[in-house]
């Protein structure tokens, strides 16, 4: 067989395993704007080998059609150009000899009872929708399906097949809601497929193409030229909050300069200012407090349901928050500062601001737990003071003060290439080109492209497939309504590019969500068996996929308006949280049984996956490859969980209400814990009922904090001590265990932990041999630097002692555990490879 034939067969076979070959894919490549992604506390060769292994595993979980792309992307995002091509090159040859793992996703072949074609250029909405006589708009095709259903019945699958082209859904849009799409499916639209025609490139834009007559407005001192153009009267200026030029987000005029898409606290030039002088103190406004005494979870730090209504919580919609109570565990009546005083000359053009109230302040929370965006209410230039208007609700914890900040949407700050500003009074668009003027200017007009909304849970929309589309150029929503879903640190905007509510069996597959202002997909309240597979999400204003259910207060038992049995599989999610830093590729809040499997996620401001509460549980997070997280925030992990607010559900036994959740499972993930990520899996405040196993965790150990009932087994932790400055530094950090409320029923067995330069494997707070209250430890393999002595630290007779393994075991602890000298990096990687590949094979 000649080589060309082999290649051809390869392509055919690859395509064969998918209903639709087009795995939509961003054309974006990666720049090396980022500061180093590696771990400075470890030998560069070792670090490069661990990065290379992560890339190998990304290729391993990749769908075959995009294997090379995932490899190329991860190499670029991991800056492999910093590494010498020595040790880590082994992964390439290894890959060649091993049949990569891939369980093709089950793809039911659906037959269309009737096809309606849409063609933007050749179509006409008066046509009949045949291939030869296509409709012009998707909306007209949808109307036709509704007419056809009166004859065909509701059970036949109707298909809307879209021909290649760009569909500007923002043009003259009637709804600007982030919950009602330009294409709005309702309860009457079950059994529908909307997809691209063959491999044609179908772009759904949330904007409208601008036809502009440019003229020179002014030359700047730096030699740039500010151009101006009149904005057509059909453009809705309220929704024109993003400008996309040649399919990329342009920069709303800002100070300090910098592109929020590609610059942030992770880059050498962050585009943020650290020159705040002080923050103007908030005014505490008490909420009406709801405290449920019964039922409660005993044996738990966070035992009771509580909620603040109104007062400080009034900035949210609805005006309620777990955090807005006077003396909650960890709470303090939610507040944010009223304004900002900057150091003199920190904003060199502030005296020239002609209309400061157009402006926005983007500022980090003081603890870098997220960020806020405020409208500017007023400035006092003699005092260097900016007072805030609406905003500050884009995370739920609040604080008296903020951190790094930037100012945007001020005309006088338009002084750098690719910046723009709209003067709403004169309807003038100003823009500074980078030498030559670009061609295609698109003004955002709507945040939501497609909504699938049943009128009720009983009357849900069923059996819809959305496939093969590129969704892009939507409005931002960061200043719109936010709500606090539960007891995690999050607030969330319950809308997005796609919005789903009251649905069953909706499949969203092979789509590309790129350059969107809001969230990618918002899965809100009841949605059964949603499948989100083989999509790419990139360049997102907020999160990738948000799952947000609701309850009636504590009651999530008789009220089941929550996403249930969601599958999020084989997606590529990166470059999220361009504006909102308390955001993630995947948010799970008040949801049942979510599976997040085989996804690749990187370049993220905070956690890749955040589980905001202990509602129901039964989540599975497995086979994911995650790195470059917590790039701009702090005190967090690549995967983060919280469990502070109890809810009733039938998680423990069907038909029996309980405040306890079902166990959730985190296994076979590769978690490279770089940037500010403290723990690969940060089981933060109150997290309970997790079984974590077979994860390859680089630079971090296990964490327990104010929770209980978690089990870790067969984990591999690599060099957790190399991040000791950031709160961990050990195989287990058992923080603040307290009999009867936290730290009980914690199990850590059959794990492998390799220390780099430390011989202290555990940090168990309050360890005292006279009164032992420690996790159940057994049969672990601990590796320490050769030539060192292991030191299990624990108090004996009131003073801290360093125990040998024998001494430690003499208290009945860690039976079966061994301590040996650390092997070399190749051995460790080989253990990882065997663990992941063998167990994956066994699980097929
Ligand atoms: C994806 O990889 C293929 C080769 O397998 C390449 O031809 C294509 O250009 C890549 N796509 C992108 C967007 O990089
Ligand atoms: C690459 O090789 C050079 C020269 O041997 C060495 O100085 C450098 O530390 C190496 N870098 C890495 C990342 O291995
Ligand atoms: C949008 O509205 C404007 C002004 O009413 C009109 O001129 C234009 O034709 C409309 N465009 C479309 C695509 O309907
Ligand atoms: C659904 O169809 C029913 C019956 O044809 C009709 O009465 C109702 O208005 C439709 N609902 C929507 C949301 O279109
Ligand atoms: C919960 O309370 C019951 C009854 O007071 C007690 O028997 C049980 O041990 C408690 N559970 C925990 C975990 O404290
Ligand atoms: C600001 O305004 C002053 C006079 O009002 C002017 O001299 C100065 O050049 C302006 N600065 C900028 C950056 O436009
Ligand atoms: C700015 O603050 C100074 C000092 O408090 C005050 O006198 C002045 O009136 C303020 N200016 C404005 C525009 O509010
Ligand atoms: C402007 O163009 C130069 C040269 O092509 C490029 O290096 C630079 O990144 C561009 N700047 C912006 C803001 O696009
Ligand atoms: C889910 O929807 C798909 C596509 O419409 C259909 O083929 C499949 O049978 C549905 N599954 C169930 C369980 O209804
Ligand atoms: C747990 O989730 C799985 C899917 O991962 C589902 O099949 C199962 O029914 C769920 N169990 C419960 C008790 O909800
Ligand atoms: C290892 O730790 C020792 C003692 O804390 C320190 O002196 C040494 O520099 C460390 N070595 C490395 C490679 O970090
Ligand atoms: C601890 O104190 C007890 C009684 O004071 C003593 O018998 C024992 O030897 C001490 N243990 C150690 C390890 O010092």
Name the overall outline. Answer: globular
Strand-pairing-aware structural class = mainly beta
Q: Which fold does the CATH topology of the domain at 476-843 refer to?
A: Pectate Lyase C-like
> What is the CATH architecture annotation of the domain at 476-843?
3 Solenoid
Bound molecules: 2-acetamido-2-deoxy-beta-D-glucopyranose
Count every beta strand, where a strand is a DSSP E run of 2 or more residues.
Answer: 62
The biggest sheet, with number of strands, parallel, antiparallel or mixed sense and barrel status, is: 22 strands, parallel
Strand content: 25-35%
CATH class of the domain at 476-843: Mainly Beta
Q: Let me know the average pLDDT.
A: 92
Which ranges are low-confidence, i.e. pLDDT below 50, for 5 or more consecutive residues?
1-22, 27-33, 90-104, 840-844
Report the helical percentage: 10-25%
Keywords: Signal
InterPro entries: Pectin_lyas_fold, Pectin_lyase_fold/virulence
Protein name: Right handed beta helix domain-containing protein
Signal peptide: 1-21
């Amino acid at each position: 067989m000649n080589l060309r034939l082999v290649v051809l067969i390869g392509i055919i076979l690859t395509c064969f395993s998918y209903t639709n070959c087009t795995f939509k894919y961003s054309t974006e490549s990666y720049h090396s704007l980022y500061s180093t992604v590696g771990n400075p506390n470890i030998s560069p060769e070792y670090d490069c080998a661990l990065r290379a292994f992560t890339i190998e595993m990304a290729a391993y979980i990749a769908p075959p059609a995009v294997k090379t792309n995932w490899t190329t992307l991860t190499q670029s995002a991991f800056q492999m150009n910093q590494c010498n091509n020595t040790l880590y090159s082994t992964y390439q040859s290894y890959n060649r000899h091993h049949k990569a793992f891939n369980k093709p996703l089950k793809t039911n072949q659906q037959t269309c009872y009737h096809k309606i074609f849409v063609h933007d250029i050749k179509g006409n909405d008066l046509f009949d929708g045949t291939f030869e006589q296509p409709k012009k708009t998707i909306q007209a095709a949808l109307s036709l399906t509704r007419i056809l259903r009166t004859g065909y019945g509701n059970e036949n699958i109707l298909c809307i097949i879209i021909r290649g082209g760009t569909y500007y859904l923002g043009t003259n849009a009637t709804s600007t809601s982030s919950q009602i799409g330009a294409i709005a499916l309702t309860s009457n639209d079950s059994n529908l497929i909307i997809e691209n025609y063959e491999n044609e490139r179908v772009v759904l834009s949330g904007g409208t193409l601008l036809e502009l007559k440019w003229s020179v407005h002014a030359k700047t001192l730096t030699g740039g030229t500010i151009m101006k153009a009149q904005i057509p009267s059909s453009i809705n200026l309220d929704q024109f909050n993003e400008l996309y030029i040649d399919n990329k987000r342009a920069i709303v005029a800002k100070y300090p300069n910098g592109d929020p898409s590609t610059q942030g606290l992770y880059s050498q030039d962050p585009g943020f200012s650290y020159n705040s002088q002080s923050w103007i103190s908030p005014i505490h406004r008490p909420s009406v407090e709801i405290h449920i005494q019964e039922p409660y979870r005993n044996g738990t730090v966070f035992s009771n349901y509580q909620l603040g209504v109104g007062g400080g919580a009034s900035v949210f919609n609805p005006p309620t928050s777990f955090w807005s109570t006077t003396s909650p565990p960890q709470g303090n009546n939610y507040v944010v500062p009223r304004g900002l005083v900057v150091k003199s000359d920190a904003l060199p053009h502030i005296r020239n601001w002609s209309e400061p109230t157009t402006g926005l302040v983007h500022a980090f929370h003081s603890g870098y737990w997220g960020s806020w965006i405020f409208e500017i209410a007023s400035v006092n230039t003699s005092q260097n003071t900016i007072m805030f208007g609406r905003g500050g609700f884009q995370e739920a914890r609040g604080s008296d003060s903020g951190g790094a900040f930037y100012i945007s949407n001020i005309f006088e700050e338009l002084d750098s290439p690719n910046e723009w500003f709209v003067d709403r009074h004169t309807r003038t668009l100003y823009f500074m080109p980078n030498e030559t003027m670009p061609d295609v200017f698109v003004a955002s007009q709507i945040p939501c492209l497609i909504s699938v909304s049943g009128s009720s849970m009983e009357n849900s929309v069923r059996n819809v497939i959305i496939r093969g589309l590129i969704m892009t150029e939507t409005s931002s929503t960061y200043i719109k309504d936010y709500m606090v879903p539960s007891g995690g640190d999050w607030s969330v905007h319950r809308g997005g590019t796609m919005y789903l509510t009251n649905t069953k069996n909706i499949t969203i597959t092979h789509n590309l969500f790129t350059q969107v202002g809001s969230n990618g997909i918002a899965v809100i309240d009841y949605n059964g068996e949603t499948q989100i597979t083989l999509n790419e999400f990139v360049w997102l204003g907020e999160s990738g996929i948000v799952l947000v259910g609701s309850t009636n207060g504590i009651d999530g038992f008789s009220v089941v308006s929550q996403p249930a049995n969601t599958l999020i599989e084989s997606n590529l999610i990166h470059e999220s949280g361009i504006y909102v830093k308390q955001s993630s590729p995947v948010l799970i809040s008040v949801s049942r049984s979510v599976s997040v499997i085989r996804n690749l996620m990187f370049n993220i401001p905070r956690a890749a996956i955040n589980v905001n509460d202990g509602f129901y549980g039964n989540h599975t997070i497995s086979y994911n490859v995650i790195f470059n997280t917590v790039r701009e925030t702090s005190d967090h992990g690549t995967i983060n969980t919280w469990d502070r607010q109890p809810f009733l559900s039938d998680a423990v036994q069907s038909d029996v209400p309980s405040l306890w959740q079902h166990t959730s499972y985190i296994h076979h993930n590769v978690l490279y814990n770089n940037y500010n990520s403290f723990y690969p899996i940060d089981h933060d405040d109150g997290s309970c009922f997790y079984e974590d196993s077979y994860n390859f965790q680089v630079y971090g150990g296990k964490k327990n904090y104010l929770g209980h009932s978690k089990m870790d087994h067969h984990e591999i932790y690599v060099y957790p001590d190399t991040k000791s400055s950031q709160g961990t530094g050990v195989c287990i950090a058992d923080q603040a265990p307290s009999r009867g409320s936290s730290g009980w029923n914690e199990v850590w067995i059959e794990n492998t932990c390799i220390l780099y330069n430390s011989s202290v494997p555990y940090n168990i707070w309050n360890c005292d041999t006279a009164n032992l209250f420690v996790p159940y430890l057994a049969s672990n393999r601990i590796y320490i630097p050769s030539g060192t002595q292991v030191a299990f630290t624990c108090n004996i007779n009131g003073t801290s002692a360093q125990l040998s393994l024998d001494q430690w075991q003499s208290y009945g602890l860690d039976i079966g555990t061994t301590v040996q000298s650390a092997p070399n990096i190749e051995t460790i990687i080989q253990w990882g490879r065997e663990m992941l590949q063998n167990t994956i094979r066994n699980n097929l």
